[in-house]
Specification:
Blueprint: E1 2-9, E2 20-27, E3 36-38, H1 44-52, E4 58-61, E5 64-77, E6 81-88, H2 94-104, E7 110-122, E8 130-143, H3 147-162, H4 169-178, H5 183-192, H6 194-197, H7 207-217
Parallel strand pairs: 3-8, 4-8
Antiparallel strand pairs: 1-7, 2-6, 4-5, 5-6, 7-8
Length: 218
């Protein structure tokens, strides 16, 4: 599953005591840092299938499938892009309550989508641009970082691994921090993952580190 953070902001002014939030999770006809552009209608079939199968688009924190923080009550396309409206379940989940407070104070204010590509095509008017014509939307996350910095960092990790070089502990720690882990947690995960990063046979790493590495490897 791929993720795309367009740096789109939540409507923080509208958040109330009920934890309701809304905003755009994707915009149409905008070329992003991957030289990709989401076409109008890209989510239409996916949303129809989800409705028919009574399958919800998940509200996650930082694309972590272990951290569901609320429900999206409305996910729909309009003339601009993918508009979402939902509720942070702050009375049920401690993490949701934490995110609610951070959103309300403006510390967290961006949305990002998790999806699978179904149909793409080269753009006929812009060289090197790929049009995402049909996407299977799986989740919409509340995230910390904007698209360019975070996307570039993940691409860098994939490049290092594809080139056959293992990450250093310091590099891995930095990537964990960019992914939303606290300094203390990043240091602890990196330390426990040292044998795993070195590729030692039978090496074991912290579960969170393993999930992160697997996600970067695609």
């Amino acid at each position: 599953m791929r993720t795309k953070n367009c740096g789109l902001t939540l409507d923080v002014k509208a958040i109330g005591d009920d934890g309701v939030i809304e905003g755009y999770a994707s915009m149409f006809n905008v070329v992003d840092s991957y030289n990709e552009m989401v076409a109008p209608g890209a989510f239409k079939a996916s949303l129809a299938t989800a409705k028919r199968e009574k399958r919800a688009v998940k509200m996650l924190y930082q694309h972590d499938t272990w951290t569901v923080i609320g429900v999206w009550d409305e996910v729909a396309e309009d003339e601009k892009g993918l508009r979402v409206r939902g509720r942070l379940l702050k009375d049920i989940s401690p993490k949701a309550a934490e995110v609610y407070g951070l959103v309300r104070e403006g510390a967290l204010d961006e949305l990002s989508i998790g999806y699978r590509e179904i149909e793409t095509a080269p753009d006929r008017q812009q060289d090197g641009v790929t049009v995402l014509k049909k996407l299977d939307l799986r989740e919409v996350s509340i995230v910390t970082f904007g698209a360019l910095g975070r996307a570039a960092r993940i691409d860098e990790v994939k490049s290092i691994q594809d080139g056959g070089r293992n990450l250093t502990i310091r590099e891995f720690e930095g990537f964990l921090r960019d992914a939303g882990f606290s300094r203390k947690m990043a240091e602890a995960i990196s330390a426990s993952s040292r044998p795993h990063l070195r590729g030692e046979p039978g090496a074991q790493a912290d579960d969170a580190a393993v999930r992160f590495l697997r996600a970067m490897r695609g």
